[in-house]
Input
Amino acid sequence: MAMVFSKRIRALLVCLVLSAFCLNAEERALITHYPAIVTAEQGGPLITVLCYHHVDCAVKTEYSVTSAQLSEQIDALQAAGFSFIDSRALEDFFVQGKPIPVKSVLITFDDGNYDVFRSGYPLLKKRGIPFTFFVYPKAVDEGHAKHGVDWDDLREMAANGVTIGSHTMTHPFLTKPPETIKDRKEYDVWLENEIANSRVAIETQLKRPVTELAIPFGAFDAYIRQKAIEAGYTMVFNVNGVNSDVRADRWNMNRIIVKASMPIKQFLEEATAPPLVFSSTQPSALARVNSETTDVTFILDDAEAYDESTVQSHVTSFEGLELQHIKDTDFFVETVDLRRPAFYEVYVTAKDRVGRLCRGAWLFIYEKETPTPIVP
Ligand SMILES: [Zn+2]
Output
């Protein structure tokens, strides 16, 4: 059944691709028209969103890059033909269809650490590179005492072109409310505080609109995504570790977390890898499943653009648990033993017809219990 379905979808896709407007994006600095399907071979636009946390932090962690690393990464991306865009350009691209460069990269920082204000901001300002700073009011209220930025720091950055986004109110796992939350109604109130009220709190302090939300730990589900839409956000960001193009879901935008241990070669490979996009997946992106075993399947959008013999995929959990590889079959299906409740990421790579390694991913959640009253 799955095979038949997959072939039908593929046949349909081929028809769509053949009838799609043919765009030679590589030859233009800006794309001015978007076909319904932009193939990997057509070249773009490739959208890379990088997620940093610290710059020159006194405490060395995986999440703290040095100024030298940040500069080297910017140089490498510029040498590879990338243009640095701001959040507004990305929103206008998705919402209004305004053009962005064929290779676009957006820099973001999460958590509101003071070293970003002290080291990252001046470096990027000097180079004329925009960025988005995702902060959560609980930390900003504590400010310098907890090595975070305060509202004055944010006002200064915002006045100088930095976009300030919400990273919720208190930075919790949004799918795991405190135990005091007993039912769905209380859960909704709690979510509204994290998602909607955080936005209002930042807007009130900065007197500027806040239109973007970065999900703490990238851990959310379709219900939370919907709450973010209802709260008025234009874009929501995950940390799935892959890139995007015009086919992206703007309320589930991919970002790559940049780690201190990443050699520049690996950084460049990941930041410049074209995306794999799925025309269908099972489980669907941000779905909740409640069975210990589940079929994981996917169909690549624009499947003809890829060499099927190079398709590889595996499932990992947030805790780093590596599961069995999904066999490379005609329709990419494998039953996966989920082992324990967690967020699971399905990660897929394939080479396109011109030999570029493309990467795609989606997230789903396994909840062991029958959904509790608070779980949608
Ligand atoms: Zn965070």
Summary: Residues 42-272 form a domain with the TIM Barrel fold (CATH 3.20.20.370).
